[in-house]
Specification:
92 residues, four-stranded antiparallel beta sheet
Length: 92
């Protein structure tokens, strides 16, 4: 399944800076596949056969440790199907 991870609390206002190349490598080390990052946003597109909540917990558990974040990192996982539905049903 294809997912988007929206990782909040990094690269905001010059705080908790994370290199997108490092983020991509970290996501691959977590076992995620076909990992791509989107600009310097902390958003990641990837494939996985794991459930969304499992993926979100894995990502959130490594981010504060690896990046010494002063703010707790929140992770929202959206499946491709969910994103398509959001776009389709968005008000014009």
């Amino acid at each position: 399944m294809i997912y988007v991870a929206l990782i909040r609390g990094i690269n905001v206002g010059g705080n908790n800076k994370v290199s997108m190349a490092e983020l991509k490598t970290l996501m691959e080390e977590l076992g995620l596949e076909n990992v791509r990052t989107y600009i310097n946003s902390g958003n990641v597109i990837f494939s996985s056969d794991k459930p969304e909540d499992t993926i979100a917990k894995k990502i959130a558990s490594v981010m504060p440790h690896d990046y010494k974040s002063k703010v707790p990192v929140k992770v929202l996982i959206i499946s491709q199907k969910q994103l398509e539905s959001i776009i389709k049903n968005a008000p014009k």
